[in-house]
Amino acid sequence: MPEEPVQPVQPDLATLHPPYGLVLRAGDLTLRPLAEADLPEYTTLIRRPIFEDPHSAHVFPWYRAEPETRVRESLRFQWRLRSGLGPEQWTLPFGVWADGRLIGCQDVSAERFAQRCTVTSGSWLTLDMHGRGYGRLMRQAMLVFAFDHLGAVRAESSAVLGNDRSTGVSRACGYVDNGTQLSSVPGSDELEQRFLVTPETFRRPDVPVEVEGLTAALRELLGA
Ligand SMILES: CC(C)(COP(=O)(O)OP(=O)(O)OC[C@H]1O[C@@H](n2cnc3c(N)ncnc32)[C@H](O)[C@@H]1OP(=O)(O)O)[C@@H](O)C(=O)NCCC(=O)NCCS
């Protein structure tokens, strides 16, 4: 009888694309880069209210679009991030889960991290999850990852003047003022307050942050 051909064992996606193996855990929160399987839940979230006042100046330009457009563009955005990820420039789009439910996103990005050892970040939560300390804890978890595990020495952020919640998170994490800038976000001409935090000024979370899946392959990809 002819022998059955042996099927090769296929590698999992986290082996092929190392960010998919990364997980941060802090208190009730789990952060991991959004994977393909998370995108349907992500698009549901993108349709929900994120801002208290949808007409205020600090509303993200992408959020002003109709929900259908928002969903289509956010998917293109997620796929661009994956295809553009490498040591020259990267963004890890962490989804944020509280007790197993996706509630928002915490991005962290860098350009030429190996030379600059600097990260920038952006974040949002659905409106029903504001004001519970999650915004602060997810930023702190990202900063522990960047400072303690990647070896970053600076983390920068910015917020449109008047975005008091975002400013509140930055101050609560130990960021200091770092000048102003005109927004570089396409479609926005707002003035932003810049913030800077270093390992010395960082106000650490009250809970431990566990980091899993920072492999040699992922470090190489991030230049860390
Ligand atoms: C910005 C955002 C992520 C903050 O998350 P959050 O969970 O609401 O914030 P937290 O509850 O963790 O609050 C963090 C700190 O800000 C302070 N804060 C909250 N709201 C504030 C306000 N309106 N004015 C001043 N400080 C405020 C809190 O007191 C807290 O400080 P503390 O920990 O020292 O007490 C969330 O509000 C959001 O998604 N907003 C819409 C999107 C957005 O603006 N993203 C930022 C773009 S730059």
Description:
The N and C termini lie far apart (53 Å). The mean pLDDT is 95. The chain is globular. Helix 2 crosses helix 3. Strands 7-8-6-5-4-3-2-1-9 form a 9-stranded mixed β-sheet, with helices on both faces. A hairpin with an 8-residue loop joins strand 7 and strand 8 (191-197). It is an alpha+beta fold and 224 residues long. Helices cover 29% and strands 28% of the residues. The protein has one domain (13-222): Gcn5-related N-acetyltransferase (GNAT) (Aminopeptidase, 3-Layer(aba) Sandwich). Coenzyme A is lined by residues 50-51, 58, 122-125, 130-136, 159, 163-166, 168-169, 172.
Basic shape: globular
The molecules bound to the chains, other than polymers, are:
coenzyme A
CATH homologous superfamily (4th level) name: Gcn5-related N-acetyltransferase (GNAT)
Low-confidence stretches: none
The proportion of strand residues reads 25-35%
Mean pLDDT: 95
Which structural class fits the helix and strand makeup?
alpha+beta
How are helices and strands ordered from N to C? HEEHHEEHEHEHEEEH
